[in-house]
Amino acid sequence: MAAVDTNVLVRLLTGDHPAQYKGSHALFATEPVFIPDTVILETEWVLRAAYQLEPAAVCEALRRVCGLANVTLANAAMIAQVIAWHEAGLDFADAFHLALSKDQDALKTFDADFIRRGKALSDCRVEKP
Questions:
Q1: Does the pLDDT of residue 75 top 90, yes or no?
Q2: Residues 6, 39: contact at Cβ < 8 Å?
């Protein structure tokens, strides 16, 4: 199984570099692929910041590729939760932090929006230090 870097996933999702898209597409079409959690996180940032995709489009793209039969994720349930929370309005990175902190008592932040939005999402309290 091959793990992929963010640029391979971004090329597959955007098709903006024909030669690289061809290689990425061939890989995903013919081999088992592992996508690290950090690649999912960075891919969201690239699609949002560099390609100006809206959250719904980013979530749809990630859900589509993560759902491929030959794709393995380290934490598939967690990634699904992150995508759902992002669709509900939580910042993607904040959703990632909260999902990874689910077994902790609290996640400390100075981000008032994260505190407000994260309150009802997890048993892990989101609060100021």
A1: yes
A2: yes
